[in-house]
Amino acid sequence: MDGLRSIDIWVLAVYLLAVVGMGAWLGRRSGTTKGFMVAGGTLPGWAVGLSIFGTYLSSNTFIGVPGKAFAGNWNAFVFSLSLPLAAWVAVKYFVPFYRSRGEISAYHHLEGRFGPWARTYALGCYLLTQLARVGTILFGVSLGLSALTGWSLPVIIMVAGLAVTAYTLIGGIEAVIWTDVVQSLVLLAGAIIITLLLIVNHPHGAGEALHVAAEADKFSLGSFALDATTATFWVVLLYGLFINLNNFGIDQSFVQRYHAARDDRAAARSVWTGALLYVPVAALFFLIGSLLFSFYQSSPELLTALKEAHPDGHADQALPHFIATQLPPGVAGLLIAALVAAAMSSIDTSLNSAATVTLKDFVQRHLKRGQTEADSLKILRGGTLIWGVLGTGAALAMIGQKSLLDAWWKLSGIFAGGMLGLFLLGLAARRADRAGAIIGVCIGVLVICWMTFPAHFPEWLRSPFHAHMITVLGTLTIFAIGVIVTEWRRGFENGK
Q: Which residues have C-beta within 8 Å of that of residue 21, sequence separation ≥ 6?
């Protein structure tokens, strides 16, 4: 591949400079800790909702989702179908819970409920989740840019990491949300353009494109069997429900958005906006993957060129390769900007939220620093920089991964699995006590480790469950054990 044309590079460069410049301009209004973390609680619900939507639409969506549909089918789309239910739970319970308490940290209440250990445990799980998230997303966008430009993958990772860290550090959450609004619109436009171009460029027209994909079973949602050992429809749906409940319920970046909204109604509207927008757009990206499969199947010489260009895994590279080789100058640059937008709109969120909990849950809680406004701002900006560097390092460590989406799902399942159960135990099981929570978390973590590392156990003791069930069973174990232990202790004490 000869790489991008100069006009495409200029389009991409102008876009990056515009986003960083927008972040710097908005930074004028982030001169306080409240401004940096929640934008003073003044933002409209539609803007916050588009930011939530943009967070969901990462480079995992732009590259990993079409790659999944290209290599397999629409089974992973079932994840999105859980969003409306998770959003309903969030609007009914989670949003009122956090807004009524007024505490910016998502983990502060866990200390009051179960003790300091619970807050520290949730904080650790969250930071590891964000590190994995930043790493996979940054790696994904860099993988695409490397395929498009021919530039060094490590260099792209470091430059992209620096750019998004810079405007997040300067502008705080207001820069995050408003740049997410712009980037969400850019990404949506890019997805629509790609879909239309795939249909127009197909050698035999739209009907044949859909027919070829359907003949190869590309639109299948997976098996409907009640089998927890494979990625059936029900397994993916359960996984999606638990992950999205985790996002809406105990993800710091979402909690900050609830507080950034101007009122309770705007906060609720933001959840529905983000959730309901994502479902059809996710379907659009799966359609892109199916159309890509049909396009390359109908042009064997182009499929051969794709495989030769990317021998280590051509599925995730199918869309970037199509953009670089099949689109006219300028259009390719716009779509590459959409790819970059998908990544930046997620990474900036993770960096801002990681910096916030570093200040609120670690520095102020344990080191007793950052009590003054000036010190707090220094810590927030320093934390953004540190997590930006660590996330860039995580992306560099991921070089060689074959399926971007699989990598992210596995990592998020491991780290998120132990958080939601504790949160639900504290929220829904009002009688649950500290001892029950501790024992529940300990056993839940053992279950998560058992399911995550099957190779370390003898064959007869290995988990038979699919990896998507890690979050589900980890959460249910913590909740159930916590309730059982609490009730047993109460019964024992009353029996005395």
A: none
Task: Return the exposure string of 390-405: e unless at least 16 CB atoms fall within 10 Å of the residue's CB, then b.
Answer: bbbbbbbebeebebbb
End-to-end CA distance of the chain: 78
Long-range pairs of 123-126 with CB within 8 A, sequence gap ≥ 24: 123/357, 123/361, 123/362, 125/415, 125/416, 125/418, 125/419, 126/250, 126/251, 126/252, 126/354, 126/357, 126/415, 126/419
> CA angle at residue 172 from 410 to 178, to 5 degrees?
85
Angle at 343 between CA 309 and CA 130, to 5 degrees: 115
The pTM (predicted TM-score) of the whole model is 0.85
Cβ atoms of 286 and 278 within 8 Å: the answer is: no
Q: What is the CATH number of domain 6-400?
A: 1.20.1730.10
Q: What is the pLDDT along the chain (496 residues), one digit of tens a residue?
A: 445 567 777 887 887 788 778 777 776 666 678 888 888 888 999 999 998 988 887 766 777 788 888 888 999 999 999 999 999 999 999 999 999 988 888 898 899 899 999 998 888 888 888 888 888 888 877 877 776 777 788 888 898 888 888 878 877 888 788 888 887 888 888 888 888 888 887 777 778 888 888 888 889 998 999 999 999 999 999 999 998 998 898 889 899 999 999 999 999 999 999 999 999 999 999 999 999 999 888 888 888 888 877 766 677 778 877 887 777 777 777 777 777 777 777 788 889 899 999 998 888 887 776 678 888 888 888 999 999 999 898 888 877 665 555 555 566 666 666 788 899 998 888 888 899 999 999 999 889 888 887 877 888 888 899 888 988 999 999 999 999 998 888 777 776 5
Other C-beta atoms lying within 10 Å of the C-beta of residue 431: 9
The 8-class DSSP code of residue 360 comes to I
Reading the block at residue 309, the tokens are 């260009």
Written in H, E and C, the secondary structure of 216-280 is CCCCCCCCCCCCCCCCCHHHHHHHHHHHHHHHHHHCHHHHHHHHHECCHHHHHHHHHHHHHHHHH
Compute the distance between CA of residue 455 and CA of residue 446 in angstroms, rounded to an integer: 15
What are the residue boundaries of the structural domains of the chain, listed by start?
A: 6-400
Burial of 305 (0-12, 13-18, 19+ CB in 10 A): middle
Nearest to 236 by CA among 292, 282, 303, 184: 282
Please answer whether residues 140 and 404 qualify as being in contact, where contact means their C-beta atoms are separated by less than 8 angstroms. yes
* Local structure of residue 82 (DSSP, 8 states): T
